[in-house]
Amino acid sequence: MNDIVHDDDSHARLDRLAEISQRLLARARALGASQAEVSCSEEHGLNVSVRMGEVETVESTRDRGVAVTVYFGQRKGSASTADLHESSLEATVEQACAIARHTEDDPAAGLADAALMAREFPDLETWHPWRLDADEAIDLALACEAAGREADARVENSDGASFGSGGSLSVYANSHGFVGRERETQHSLGVALIAGRGDGMQRDGWYSIGLAREDLEAPVAIGRRAAERAVARLQPRSAPTGEFPVLFSAEIARSLVGHLLNAVSGGALYRRASFLLDSVGTRLFPEWFDIDERPLLRRGLRSTAFDADGVATRDSALVAGGVLQRYVLGAYSARKLGLQTTGNAGGVHNLQVGANAGTQDELLRGMGRGLLVTELMGQGVNGVTGDYSRGAAGFWVEDGALAYPVDELTIAGNLRDMFARIEAVGSEVDPRSHIRTGPILVGRMTVAGGE
């Protein structure tokens, strides 16, 4: 397999997208727009899937798109196209202008302030193309599945393995004179396996994801870990009912951070649909608890020098000493709230949850008796009240060690209480997300099992 791409034309393609954006901005000005912004993108990818040693799908994709937003004072219009011919681009700008002329004034509409635009564009090492053909991609998926199926005789079936590799190029430009270019690759490999027979079958899997080939775990390691996880779930029992410590494994713990993000995002706040209204400066977590945003992290899964408004990003604390430091805002939501953008139009960039404890095994020993959650089901989270109730599966813990697998149980609480009751964050970080956290131990939750 050829790791080095000698004919990389990504910079030339970015130049073309930037040139298109400038033509569209000029046309918007000529049609009377007071402000305008343009997003241009190209994406390509190769995705394959196999099951039980046979190829199921091979898909090669190439997509592109242009989105134009214009402002006539505080009236906004948007239109998009996937056709880059001149006539289609011209029609897209005209359509956006026509829409803006017929919309109502929105006091929060408009570009972010020009003074906030990014001016430095460091190489964040997000571009690592992997040139391989469909046969090589299929071989990787087959090797991953075969390793899992061969790892344990109790693995008798498979839901399949998949491999994906792709890249994206994008340009965002606006009438402040800002032009931002980004290029990113992403590669993934995973498998889902089925252990046991009949009513006793259990399914689990594992996957790896990264910006570069060398960031991925080896196919054999992924397959074996998937097999271990599936076999470990065999012969589940009911969990006791009561209030117990609950340890969220690292890959599940990031969902707790996700609920925090939803509650402090601009959209939820200006709609008054959050249980954390007016919470900046309030202690939500224990005093040792920190969450930092690191958008300029090299080779991070969500690294960028500017947000979707062109605003410069910077390292900053979201939670420090347990206290919520700020909300998560783009220019529009900030204006709706009478605040300043935090450079988060389009979302957050590389959150790091600080650890105060060791490995997951050490956390288990410390909790004594309780529940390790490795899977969550359902959507039972009320963003307005913070009430939390979700189906779960995992392992019952006795005397600080895994005793037996459990499923068909419910864990419940209120997110505000759960945040305050966090007792530990482990050091073993799951790297497969832009939310990087170790296992999180909540000191007390309601567990409803069958016992």
What is the arithmetic mean of pLDDT? 96
The total domain count is 2
DSSP helix fraction: 10-25%
- For the record, the CATH architecture of the largest domain stands as 2-Layer Sandwich
Find the count of extended strands (DSSP E, 2+ residues).
17
The helix tally amounts to: 9
Keywords: Hydrolase, Metalloprotease, Protease
Domain Metalloprotease TldD/E C-terminal: 241-449
Organism: Pseudoxanthomonas kaohsiungensis
Domain Metalloprotease TldD/E central: 128-234
Defining traits:
451 residues, alpha+beta, PmbA/TldD fold, 2 domains, 6-stranded antiparallel beta sheet, 9 helices, 35% strand, globular, disordered N terminus
Please provide a written account of the structure.
With 451 residues, this protein is an alpha+beta fold. It folds into 2 domains: 10-230, PmbA/TldD superfamily (PmbA/TldD fold, 2-Layer Sandwich); 236-451, no CATH class. The protein is built from 9 helices and 17 strands. The strands form 3 sheets. A 6-stranded antiparallel beta sheet has the order 3-2-1-4-5-6. A hairpin with a 2-residue loop joins strand 13 (387-398) and strand 14 (401-414). Helix 3 (134-151) packs parallel to helix 4 (219-232). The radius of gyration is 24 Å and the shape is globular. Residues 1-5 have low confidence and may be disordered. Residues 36-100 form the Metalloprotease TldD/E N-terminal domain.
